[in-house]
Amino acid sequence: MASFKSTIEKRLLNPIARSLGYERRRGTGQSGAGFTLFDYRAADGTFDYQKYRAVQIEGNKRKLANTWVIESNIEFLSNYIKGRLGEVNFGLCHGTRRGNEQVWFRKYLGCEVIGTEISDTATSFPHTIQWDFHETKPEWLDRVDFIYSNSFDHSYDPEMCLNRWMSCVRPGGLCILEHSSAHSPTGATELDPFGADIVLMPYLIANWGKGRYSVREILDAPTKGDNVSYLRFLVITRTE
Fold it and tell me: What is the pTM of this model?
């Protein structure tokens, strides 16, 4: 874990930035980089997981009354999932705060859907477990029909995170990432450490997937809040 940040920089992010003519800026949330990944470093230069966890829990509690997910969008995605996969049995929603997304997926899909939330507030909301979404459970591996998240920007290591999510998705299954203008590099902060231009996301995902998964399509959300200029869904399919 200690070297994850430098590994990302050397293996993927810096080469991609250079190839696209971007200058990468670290840990500041400044624009112009194509992506931003906040540095959670301790004084000795190692990854400070406890700081990350504390920031996420504090931010969750501070924003507990806020709801980003929109029911009409979940209904839209449920119809999309049924159209692509037919009958489904199990889904995961990662980083759910109040847990509305899993409630609505259960309503429209009629299947088991649970949400994960790093904060201890998870137990206050239905069908939610307290869990760091960077981790997997053995019973999830290769068994999840679909994953949905509007919180991918909260990942401290998006490559590792998405690889682990896709290890849970069954072959042919889907992972749907909500991406809005708030998830751009300018939106990255200590609380939301990862931000990327939407045009760069399919390229990042292709590099992370290495043939195991890829972006199938990008959907326009039928409804968006007034606080964002666009809202889209990156549909990622597992190919192996």
Answer: 0.87
